[in-house]
Specification:
alpha+beta; 4-stranded antiparallel sheet; 5 helices; Immunoglobulin-like
Amino acid sequence: MKRLLTILTALSLIATGCQKDPIANANITPFDPYVGEEITFDNLSTNTDYTEWDMGDGATSTAYNVKHSYVDPGTYTVTQRSFRDKGGMSSASYMLEVTGSELTIIVKEYWEEYVIPDVEIYLFYTLDDWDTGDVNLAVGPFYTDKYGEVTISGLSYQNYYVDAYYRNGNEGYVNWDLGLEDVIWIDTKLLTGWEYHTFVAYVDAVLFDEKKSAPAVEEVRQGRTSHSLAAGQKKATGQDRPIKENKSTQPREK
């Protein structure tokens, strides 16, 4: 019996001495994702009983394999920690460059559809922010070129609400009345990163309040002090504005 106990003890020591440390490893697809694109983290760790993930954007997981996506563009460091129940830990880090959405805005006068250069554009994160007119709550400014277009890169995976403003003396163009009539005229819809997005920002010709002498942009937008000429045009036609398609997408390639 003593001989048997000695053998068993020796085998136990050998087994303990042979325990291998965990090695953290993973396969990541795709490694150069767009915002909103689902990324698969396949756990290839060895000698591992469980794994912890820190996705670099505040999200964490203890799942063995993980699927995750990022809302905002940027560089993220993903940390993987693999553990053995009986002790031992291995850590690995992966740096991901997440590409933002891209949006081209074309500014057109609503009724005659001619393009308008030098329009100042702001993108608001929420409709409530757009309602305030406070440009400090928005991304921008951006300006249309001579063709009435501007392309904006590095945007997040979300809807934006477009504010368009142009003033020359007491005359100009805004999309404020359109936005108040129907959100479709200002809502970009969800900007997926793997598509190119085009948004036609229709505007109305307006006369600004003569009582205010060249007010600051913030004051104009927050007060929305203009008199739209569109009301007369709507009345002359005897009907509300026809709905026009103002959003389109096409596949994007890196």
